[in-house]
Amino acid sequence: MFTAIKFPTSNLNVTTRSISILVLLILGSAIFAACAGESGSDGVQGATGAQGIQGEAGADGSSGAKGDTGDTGAKGAAGKDGVTGPAGPSGDEGKQGETGPAGSSAGFDTGDGLILDGDAISADLSGSGSATTIARSDHDHDDDYYDQSAVDAAVAAASAWGSLTGVPSGIADGY
């Protein structure tokens, strides 16, 4: 807390020490006098601190009085059916119907172009393609799309400089 100060060894040494001691005595008296006075008035109230953590829950209180009886509720649904009674007498037997068309052991028949082999239905995919889907033989997209010659003719017409319209003057020669 205090730092020792070394003074030079001369006659000044005694004088300097005396002055230092005198200054310390005066400061000590001033501090003592300041502490011995009466208390001052209270200062203004400080800001409210942060809220603390919530405490444990208290014990349950006593139960309240029993309430009034409520209104009668709506009628409930009907109960379950009773036990089934004994079987009645058999009726007359009808005559046997006509024999139906031949079927398969799988319970279904195949249409045109399909093959039934045991319980599996397959189709004859003729040709050398790799498609595994089935389409009718008259299924054709040629009318819906442009063929190569139609596309080539359209590209040739569009790329001919002379066939362009509305070209500004000054670049009409193509440069």
Keywords for this entry:
single chain, 175 residues, mainly alpha, two-stranded antiparallel ribbon, flat
Structure description:
There is one protein chain. The protein is mainly alpha-helical and 175 residues long. The protein has helices spanning 12-35, 148-159, and strands spanning 114-117, 120-123. A two-stranded antiparallel sheet has the order 1-2. The two termini are 95 Å apart. The model has no long low-confidence stretch (mean pLDDT 76).
Inertia-based shape: flat
Global Rg: 58 Å
Largest sheet report:
2 strands, antiparallel
Strand and helix order? HEEH
* Tally of strands: 2
Helix amount: 10-25%
Proportion of beta-strand residues:
under 5%
* Count of individual helical segments: 2
Which structural class do the helices and strands define?
Answer: mainly alpha
Average pLDDT taken over every residue: 76
Query: Strand order within the widest sheet?
Result: 1-2
Distance between the termini: 95 Å
Give the uncertain stretches in residue-range form: none
Topology:
Layout: H1 12-35, E1 114-117, E2 120-123, H2 148-159
Antiparallel strand pairs: 1-2
Compact description:
By secondary structure, the protein is mainly alpha-helical.
